[in-house]
Amino acid sequence: MLLLNSSQIRASSKKNTIIFFLFIALLFSTKSHAHAEPLAKAEQSNSNAQYCVKIRHNSGSGIEQNDREAFKWYRRAAEQGGVFAQFCLGFLYANGRGVTQNDKEAYAWFSVVAENSDDNSSAKYRDLTAKKLTFSLLPEAINLAAKYHKLYSVK
After folding, report:
1. Cα(107)–Cα(129) distance, rounded to whole angstroms?
2. For residue 133, is it within any domain?
3. Is residue 141 part of a domain?
4. Is residue 8 part of a domain?
5. What is the Cα–Cα distance from 55 to 49, expressed in whole angstroms?
6. Are 37 and 150 in contact (CB under 8 A)?
7. What is the 3-state secondary structure (H, E, C) of the chain?
8. Structural domain span for residue 23
9. What angle do CA 72, 78, 82 make, to 5 degrees?
10. What is the pLDDT of residues 52-71, one digit of tens each?
11. Does 6 map to a domain?
């Protein structure tokens, strides 16, 4: 299992850090009855609303904590090119949160982030995950990463 500690987690840029803290502030300042509006916007592919919904499901803020629902929203945002969501998806696959643990998928998503950003930590997690893959699964993971990069790169 790939576990992250505070010394390993680094913000890829000031912009990502600011965005993250703005979402956290929004999360804790929003009343639970206001969940319907972000959900409706999230279902219409609004990436800001998707962040709000997935963080709420992940933390259980204002709604029941649900790893599977959080995973669903991380996946949707990742497929729209959200680098933070792509990194989180790699983490969820690596640790089996909200989805069956899958090192091949984790490798692929960490690879996409490594290609889409200047974030060195995602390349480290990709490399750590690669060490857990068998010789037969590593080429499959590399091919999957190439496919995802083509489909889900930052636009």
Report:
1. 6
2. yes
3. yes
4. no
5. 10
6. no
7. CCCCCCCCCCCCCHHHHHHHHHHHHHHHHCCHHHHHHHHHHHHCCCHHHHHHHHHHHHHCCCCCCCHHHHHHHHHHHHHCCCHHHHHHHHHHHHHCCCCCCCHHHHHHHHHHHHHHCCCHHHHHHHHHHHHHCCCCHHHHHHHHHHHHHHHHCCC
8. 14-152
9. 135
10. 665 666 666 666 778 888 88
11. no
The pTM assigned to this predicted structure is 0.68
31-65: buried (b, 16+ CB within 10 Å) or exposed (e) per residue?
A: eeeebeebbebbeeeeeebbbbbbbbbbeebeeee
Ranges of the chain whose pLDDT falls below 50: 1, 4-14, 27-34
Question: What total of structural domains would you count in the chain?
Answer: 1
Q: What CATH number is attached to the domain comprising 65?
A: 1.25.40.10
* Cα angle: 65, vertex 66, 69; to 5 degrees: 135
Residues 81, 50: contact at Cβ < 8 Å? no
- What type of residue is 114? A
Take residue 46 and report the two structure tokens written for it: 């609004």
